[in-house]
Design brief:
35% of the residues lie in helices and 8% in strands. By secondary structure, it is mainly α. It has a three-stranded mixed β-sheet. The longest helix is centred in the middle third of the chain and has 21 residues, at 74-94.
Length: 130
């Protein structure tokens, strides 16, 4: 990789195209139940990755249908789906925290990891804000 290019696009190749998706999923952080403070590795899921999981695994759409909804090719959706499932499996198997990109909790101050280990009540219901 050319030194002048470092940091601009960590994935090399073409830039990601915009994906279409319905409502944004309210951000939350999910961490292992045996979390005792300190640091824990994390896996970050982007909003488009969550939308792919929702369309395929929850709504039951085919990959072709989901790709059409999101405005991307079936091949691109397949690659993103494989990467998303790998991230989720890695977090579950190795006890990593799952953070949703642009976690709404961080902005509102109720993300437990941002409170210096202090236990907080569940965040307010944000389903209407999506």
């Amino acid at each position: 990789m050319c030194p002048d290019n470092q940091g601009e696009n960590p994935h090399r190749g073409r830039p990601r195209i915009r994906r279409k998706f319905g409502k944004r999923i309210a951000g939350r952080c999910f961490e292992p139940c045996n979390f005792m403070g300190g640091t824990v590795e994390e896996v970050i899921l982007r909003q488009d990755e969550l939308e792919i999981l929702r369309l395929i695994d929850i709504e039951g759409l085919s990959q072709e249908e989901a790709a059409g909804v999101m405005g991307i090719s079936r091949r691109t959706l397949w690659r993103d789906l494989q990467e998303t499932r790998r991230k989720c499996a890695e977090a579950l198997i190795f006890g990593k925290k799952i953070t949703l990109d642009r976690c709404a909790g961080n902005a509102r101050g109720w993300c437990r990891r941002e409170m210096n280990g202090e236990t907080r009540e569940d965040p307010p219901d944000t389903r209407d804000e999506m």
